[in-house]
Fold:
Amino acid sequence: MAEYSHVKSTKLVLKGHNKGKKKKNKDRKRKANDEDKLDIVGGWWSVSGFGEITGTVAIEMQNNAYIHAMDTGLFTLGAPHQDDEGPDPPEQFTAVKLTDSRIALKSGYGKYLGINSEGVVVGRSDAIGAREQWEPVFQSGKMALMAANSCFISYSDSGDIVAKNKAAGDDEMVKIRTSTEREVKHNDDIADEDRGNVKSCEVNYVKKFQSFQDRRLRVNEGDSSSLKRARTDGKFHEALLDRRSKMKADRYCK
Structure:
């Protein structure tokens, strides 16, 4: 972490900012919307903490360009992708958590990523040893990946992926992206029934309000696309009530 502290971060200065009266409600809503925006490319979202690194991952080193595994056991930087494209199969790795701060990465060739004595990243090991352990370091909304030699990975002029710098500068900044379903964090003021996708929410409310006279769960099997629109328009609960009323099994829809 001491090496990572060399990365300088500055506060954003917004043009035209004034110190006049603020509309608190709008500011609060705008802040919530900004927090909800995710860095997602082709269904692959950027992790922001160690606990989110799981399953299939990719390492983005530059905009839409990922670490690419070669059949020689070496790695290079793949060609940039379109804004809506995820990483190619050779750019996908399996993350294995080893401790509360370290992971191992397995390539599509079935080999674990490590470093050699020259600090070059290689993938030729069938087992996880000291050289195959990696530590993602997060600070100030940025991330760097530290190898077993306490150096951070970057892209070299020779075209290899290396770990030779003990300080993390702009060239060492990376993103770990994952295609694993994201566990959404919720504010305390959101009801438990409203958590999850629209279908699970509907089941939650059916369980809460259905009379269960014959102990059978009755959920409207109609198209649920209208629920997605209603959720966006702020009419989610009304739409749920309307769908439950058609099932004639809800004590509030008689």
